[in-house]
Amino acid sequence: MLLTPNEKCKLQNYNIRYTTIYNLKSEIFVSFIERQPMDIKLIVFDLDGTLVKYENSRWYGSWDAIGFAAGLKGEFDQLTAYYLPRLELYEKWVSANARLLEGISVKRVKKGIFPPPYSKGVRDIIPKLRGRYRI
Known about the structure:
Elements: H1 5-13, E1 18-24, E2 27-33, H2 62-69, H3 73-83, H4 90-101, H5 106-113, H6 122-129
Antiparallel strand pairs: 1-2
Helix pairs in contact: 2-5, 3-4
């Protein structure tokens, strides 16, 4: 997430330390910006496209990967084409995708999504952070 100068100023005024994660070409870069000494209690990462990158998905997302592993790529793509320009119908989109998955074996889907395709750098950074912070 990139912060605007105004957002950065607001965080600084509230004495908040923030982290910016850049995900470029499947690599994770972490930059720490410190304003005042304080304890970091929790580090949160986005999953899809940040920690993992499913290459067969438009957004490298796990939801598409689940649908594709279930053999529903065409149906998922059709729903995406219909609902993407209508984000106010997001809940209906999710429900439609979920209905398509009804009755599909978890065992079948697991073969297509595991092991997760971690982004470059994830396997290095997580062990360094674990134990020092809640992740």
